[in-house]
Structure to design on (197 residues):
């Protein structure tokens, strides 16, 4: 049985859990380090990255999560979760997990367009475009070596990236009906569990 945790310190964790459960995955909330035991993967949901990053440190999750990420444990961050996974995040006064070689800027799209929706080409998910919902999303300003860009905006800005078993989306697949990113992550988790990656 594949078991996926969703970090439930703050933000829209319930939506992720609902989708995984619908897909037949044992998904559960994670707030404390001991709750990481037995998990095959973890999602860091959208929310407020300053709050999430502060609570990760306060709940003694920083070292266990960094260690797992370094050892190839699958982690997926959406929106604020992308910020928490990044190597560098401007305007964040708490440490990140440094699991993905990207630099991000919080709320990088600016006030004028702080929320928008767009259809993205995501070849890794197949032919059909993915309808992506962005809410005060981070902008990926730098993409380092070894990072695969899974989707970008028309202006070239990366909005979905993967490096080994770390996945990040600047938008919110948990807020739409299309569950292909959740299934993509489940495949990553199963591949890791079975020893393929
Ligand atoms: N703007 C938020 C932040 O900086 C992220 C918003 C979101 O997760 N929807 O943390």
């Amino acid at each position: 049985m594949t078991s996926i945790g969703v970090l439930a310190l703050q933000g829209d964790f319930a939506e992720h859990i609902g989708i995984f459960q619908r897909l037949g995955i044992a998904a559960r909330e994670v707030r404390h380090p001991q709750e990481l035991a037995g998990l095959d993967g973890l999602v860091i949901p959208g929310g407020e990255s300053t709050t999430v990053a502060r609570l990760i440190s306060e709940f003694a999750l920083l070292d266990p999560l960094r260690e797992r990420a370094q050892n190839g444990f699958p982690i997926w961050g959406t929106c604020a979760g992308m910020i928490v996974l990044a190597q560098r995040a401007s305007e964040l006064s708490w440490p990140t997990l440094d699991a993905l070689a990207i630099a991000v800027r919080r709320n990088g799209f600016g006030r004028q367009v702080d929320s928008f929706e767009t259809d993205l080409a995501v070849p890794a998910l197949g032919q059909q475009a993915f309808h992506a919902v962005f809410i005060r999303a981070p902008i990926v300003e730098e993409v380092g070596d070894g990072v695969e860009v899974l989707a970008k905006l028309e202006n070239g800005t990366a909005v979905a990236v993967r490096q080994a078993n770390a996945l990040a989306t600047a938008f919110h697949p948990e807020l739409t009906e299309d569950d292909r990113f959740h299934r993509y992550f489940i495949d990553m988790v199963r591949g890791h569990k079975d020893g393929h990656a």
